[in-house]
Amino acid sequence: MSEQKKSEFGIWKKSIKLKTGQATEVLSFSVNGQRYTAWPNTRKQNERSPDFNVYVDNYVKPDQSTPQPTVAAAPATAKPASQMDDGLPF
User: Fold this and answer.
1) Cα separation of 9 and 36, whole Å?
2) In a domain? residue 75
3) How much is the pLDDT for 4?
4) Please, what sign has the CA dihedral across residues 8, 14, 19, 24?
5) 59: pLDDT confidence band, cut at 50, 70 and 90?
6) Do the domain assignments include residue 41?
7) Residue 83: which pLDDT band, with cuts at 50, 70 and 90?
8) Coil, helix or strand for 30?
9) 58 with 66: CB under 8 angstroms?
10) pTM above the 0.90 mark?
11) How far lies 69's CA from each of 37, 53, 59, 66, 88, in Å?
12) Where in the sequence is the domain holding 48, given as residue range(s)?
């Protein structure tokens, strides 16, 4: 009877849409507890250029229980800049 080895590593493929609207696939994996992502090399210059560029993934998902800072809106009573009399020459 032969013994089967359990896989110690795995790679996950995720399809995403870039800001440009193009779709691409990103590979995610971890080695010794460190996460990495591999992105397609869109700037290949020759046959020896890699097909993917690998980056360390240090992203930490924000804690959902911590309130996120919000940007305060200007008070409704604020005057438009053209009507302000602050003594400035401009």
Assistant:
1) 12
2) no
3) 72
4) positive
5) confident
6) yes
7) low
8) strand
9) no
10) no
11) 29, 34, 19, 9, 32
12) 9-59
Is residue 82 a part of any domain in this protein?
no
Residue 85 located in a structural domain = no
Phi-psi region of 60 (alpha: psi -120 to 50; beta: other; left: phi over 0): beta
- Describe the strand order of the beta sheet including 52-56 as a list of residue ranges: 11-17, 23-31, 34-40, 52-56
Nearest to 32 by CA among 51, 9, 60, 58: 9
Rounded Cα–Cα distance for residues 16 and 19 (Å): 10
pLDDT at 63 over 90: no
Whether the per-residue pLDDT at 80 is higher than 90: the answer is no
SS3 (DSSP) at 39: strand
Number of domains in the chain: 1
State the greatest distance between any 2 C-alpha atoms of the chain, in Å, as a whole number: 92
In the prediction, which pLDDT does 73 show? 64
